[in-house]
Design a protein that fits this description.
The chain has about 150 residues and is α/β, with parallel strands linked by helices. The chain has one domain: Glutaredoxin. The protein is about 35% helix and about 25% strand. It is built from 4 helices and 7 strands, in the order αβαβαββαβββ. It has a 7-stranded mixed β-sheet, with helices on one face. The chain binds copper (II) ion (CU).
């Protein structure tokens, strides 16, 4: 008796969950990094663990990429990524990337300038995490704090 009721429910749940995963499909992340950057690879792992598909391109010099994507010197970090039409510079936490993709703000991208200790991919054993800002920036050099960690 109970089984007869549960089966249709289960099927309905299955259909629902498959719809949901299609709705939440995350765009691919294209990461530009130097071939020897260890913390860049750790950030790539962090993004993959958060459910993103990540493609990496190794370049010896990233300055043309930073120019191309309007990443001003005060916003720069090690790697530069592009996802859903936005730039993601440096060790930005995956949940902040997700938030940006769902909120779709009118900005060029977000950045964690420098490489703060404790940001995703920059964890150092035995050292407490730095406090840092995730900065939103546009192509005209305007910036504001988008998230605080
Ligand atoms: Cu780094």
């Amino acid at each position: 008796m109970i089984q007869n009721r549960i089966a249709p429910l289960f099927i309905a749940l299955l259909i629902l969950s498959s719809c949901q995963s299609r709705q939440e499909a995350l765009p691919e992340v294209a990461v530009y990094k130097t071939p020897t950057c260890g913390c860049c690879s750790k950030w790539v792992d962090h993004m993959r663990e958060a459910g993103f598909t990540v493609n990496t391109t190794d370049l010896d010099d990233l300055s043309s990429i930073k120019d191309q994507f309007s990443v001003a010197p005060e916003n720069q970090s090690c790697h530069t990524a592009v996802v859903g039409g936005y730039v993601v510079e440096g060790h930005v936490p995956a949940d902040v990337v997700r938030r940006m993709l769902s909120e779709k703000p009118d900005i060029a991208g977000i950045a964690v300038p420098g490489m703060p200790i404790g940001s995703p991919g920059m964890e150092v054993e035995g050292r407490p995490a730095d406090r840092y800002d995730v900065v939103a920036f546009d192509k005209n050099g305007h910036r504001h704090v988008y998230a605080k960690r």
